[in-house]
Design a protein that fits this description.
The complex is a heterotrimer of chains A (about 350), B (about 160) and C (about 170). Chain A is built from twelve helices and two strands, in the order αααββααααααααα. Chain A is mainly α and about 350 residues long. Chain A has one domain. By secondary structure, chain C is mostly helical. Among the domains of chain C are: about 1-75, NADH-ubiquinone/plastoquinone oxidoreductase chain 6, subunit NuoJ (Four Helix Bundle (Hemerythrin (Met), subunit A), Up-down Bundle); about 140-170. Classes of the chains: A mainly alpha (about 350), B alpha+beta (about 160), C mainly alpha (about 170).
Chain lengths: ~350, ~160, ~170
């Protein structure tokens, strides 16, 4: 029993880890392809059929590049920066429920690494730690552009964490639980939270753009002003880690959005499909649906990147503090009133 | 001052309405536009396999021409080097010996003729300056290379291939 | 198992908090402080106080120390800009430090090991129970502390707002 449990979790962790790495890897290709398609080009198509091996070529290039650590940089922190960035990006996937429990050989197997009862807060905490990789790397480079990037990253992340947290609070008022597993289970069928929390979803979406440093909020690494932002001094695989961390973050925040607001593995007509396919393949179809939702979100991230230009710094702060926070608070108030009125009736 | 052409248009800036200040409609419209571009015809030319046509007045790599009998036209007068604003052209003249009449048209020819392709700006002034119609910029683009010295093109690369009649 | 884990983490917290003090570079000392807070989070998890652990994680590690780091990165703290300390200050510092040391040593004499406290309610630290206690038994202190935080916020906004008026 105990050994089977450990093996089960170990396999699950390995699979999810590999999945998020592969998705992040192919996000780099998808980004370039989508960018090309939105600009009437065809994108990378030389490496493999349709450019399918481009990520491998990019990875090989990253590995073989010369590794440069600046003379004046603080060596340990310079290496610690990208490591922290990728670590915090990867551990976020631990609490996401990837599907309903699967029955294999008479055993119920949860498709979730761990169901801690403060799941949302855990994700929130991991997201708020994500800025350390950027800050430490930017400071350790001993370069003014890197430092500017790091400072921007810090102030941006702190500012946008607040409306993000407030929008989650409104969601929690509805769901009455902090566990992601229960939140997903409550959205059975088509009872997706986005239908009850459209405003909260909008705030959360904008904030997750800001937290993953994606355009239009990519001020920490904007090429036009800060050379490369916090990773100006980085080369070879350490740079690769920073870029990779961004894509993993995108994958995880897409998964969180799909789980919190778009029903996770739930889809209309899932009961019928489950009864048709049995307890093994039914949940796996649900997992595919969740992955599909995640890919749609990743596409959305990229679509927005090639549509909306970058904000100016003061616009960023105005949007965060003067628009999103009041909106999120108003959303909490409306949700509270709604719940009390519905309870009274 | 009153406008003479009547083309001046004063830009009116109205304060933005509530919908405009939301920015979301504008963002969605922009996203619709970019989405439509996914299905448009791709403009990419697949370079090594497909080559775009050069325009008629394209100026590319130089070539030193031969006359109808296959003799080099250049007489090493140096006018092209003089005309060159980038000072990319150098040459050494030599006298034609007996028995070399089938190689060089004039009595004087260029023993060494070098163009530094890193200096050349492809203005075409050498072409215009040449009295013997010996140099034309009708070639391809300059090929890339790792070493600077390989960009100094000598006669081996510049002189037109002998054509068989 | 749990006890030895506790001692290990407690050792780590003390070790890193000492490093906070002894680190030469202020940025390094903030980073050690982050690790110290992380060990606190681990202690909370050992106590099964999940909510407190995660809030410590978010608020202290994720927000307050990011701001600390933010401010320290903006300051150019190095040897040249460090103010000179007079000998008088140094002697006073040494005397004060010695007094503290003597007090600490004296207090260890009266130290005695107590029995490890067994938690009465194992699930007290879970969100639901904590919320219930906070909003029934400790409602008044909770609300008063929220007013305290609000007044601090208003004060900060006032301080930030006053500058331009003085200038004009």
């Amino acid at each position: 029993m105990e050994l089977a449990f450990i093996i089960e979790k170990f396999v699950l962790i390995t699979v999810i880890f590999a999945l998020s790495l592969v998705v992040a890897m192919y996000s780099t290709l998808a980004e370039r392809k989508i960018a090309a398609f939105l600009q009437d080009r065809v994108g990378p198509n030389r490496a493999g059929p349709g450019g399918l091996f481009q990520p491998l070529a990019d990875g090989a290039k990253m590995f073989f590049k010369e590794e440069i650590i600046p003379e004046q940089a603080s060596k340990f922190l310079f290496v610690a920066g990208p490591s922290l960035a990728i670590l915090t990006a990867c551990i976020g996937s631990a609490v996401i429920p990837w599907g309903e429990a699967v029955v294999i050989a008479g055993r119920m197997i949860d498709l979730q690494v761990t169901d801690i009862n403060v799941g949302i807060l855990y994700i929130f905490g991991v997201v708020s730690l994500g800025v350390y990789g950027v800050m430490i790397g930017g400071w350790a480079s001993n370069n003014k552009f890197s430092l500017m990037g790091a400072i921007r990253a810090a102030s941006q992340n702190i500012s946008y964490e607040i409306p993000m947290g407030l929008s989650i609070i409104a969601l929690l008022l509805l769901t009455n639980t902090l566990s992601l597993k229960e939140i997903t289970a409550q959205q059975h069928g088509w009872h997706w939270n986005v239908l009850y929390q459209p405003l909260g979803f909008l705030v959360f979406l904008v904030c997750s753009f800001a937290e993953t440093n994606r355009t239009p909020f990519d001020l920490p690494e904007c090429e036009t002003e800060l050379v490369g932002g916090y990773h100006t001094e980085y080369s070879s695989m350490k740079l690769g880690f920073y870029l990779f961390a961004e894509y993993i973050n995108m994958f995880i925040s897409s998964a969180v959005m799909a789980t919190l607001y778009f029903g996770g593995y739930n889809y209309p007509g899932m009961d019928w499909v489950n009864s048709l396919l049995g307890p093994l393949w039914g949940p796996l179809v649900g997992m595919m649906v969740l992955l599909l939702k995640i890919f749609v979100f990743i596409f959305f991230f990229m679509w927005v990147r090639w549509t909306v230009p970058r904000f100016r710094y003061d616009q960023l702060m105005n949007l965060g503090w003067k628009v999103l926070i009041p909106l999120a608070i108003a959303n909490i108030v409306i949700t509270g009133i709604w719940i009390t009125v519905v309870d009274k009736l | 001052m009153k406008s003479l052409t009547n083309k001046k248009k004063v830009l009116e800036q109205k304060p933005m309405s509530f919908w405009e200040r939301l920015y979301l409609p504008a963002i969605f419209r922009g996203m619709a536009i970019t989405f439509m571009h996914m299905f448009k015809k791709k403009e990419t030319v697949f370079y090594p396999e497909v080559k775009r046509e050069f325009s008629e007045n394209w100026r590319g790599l130089h070539s030193l021409k031969r006359d109808e009998q296959g003799r080099e036209r250049c007489t090493a007068c140096g006018l092209c080097a003089l005309a060159c604003p980038a000072e990319a052209i150098t040459m050494t003249a030599a006298e034609r010996k007996k028995g070399e009449e089938h190689l060089y048209r004039e009595e004087k020819y260029a023993a060494v003729y070098e163009i530094n392709m890193l200096r050349c700006i492809f203005c075409g002034l050498c072409e215009e300056a040449c009295p013997k119609e010996a140099i034309y910029l009708d070639g391809n683009i300059v090929e890339s290379n790792y070493l600077r010295q390989n960009f100094i093109y000598g006669k081996d690369k510049l002189v037109e291939q002998l054509f068989k009649v | 198992m749990s006890i030895s884990l506790f001692y290990f983490i407690a050792f780590l917290s003390i070790f890193f908090s000492l490093l906070v003090i002894f680190a030469k570079n202020p940025v390094h000392s903030i980073l050690y402080l982050i690790i110290t807070f992380f060990t606190f989070t681990m202690q909370y998890i050992l106590l099964n106080a999940q909510f407190l652990a995660i809030v410590n994680f978010i608020v202290y590690m994720g927000a307050i120390l990011v701001l600390f780091l933010f401010v320290l990165m903006l300051l150019n703290l190095n040897k040249e800009s460090e103010p000179l300390k007079s000998n008088l200050l140094k002697t006073i510092g040494v005397i004060a430090g010695m007094c503290l040391l003597v007090t600490l040593i004296g207090s260890t004499k009266s130290l005695q090991l107590s029995n490890p406290i067994v938690l009465q309610a194992q699930n007290l630290g879970l969100v639901k129970n904590l919320g219930k206690v906070l909003f029934s038994e400790f409602l008044l202190p909770f609300e008063i502390s929220s007013i305290l935080l609000l007044s601090a916020m208003v004060g900060a906004v006032l301080l930030a707002k006053r500058e331009p008026k003085d200038a004009s």
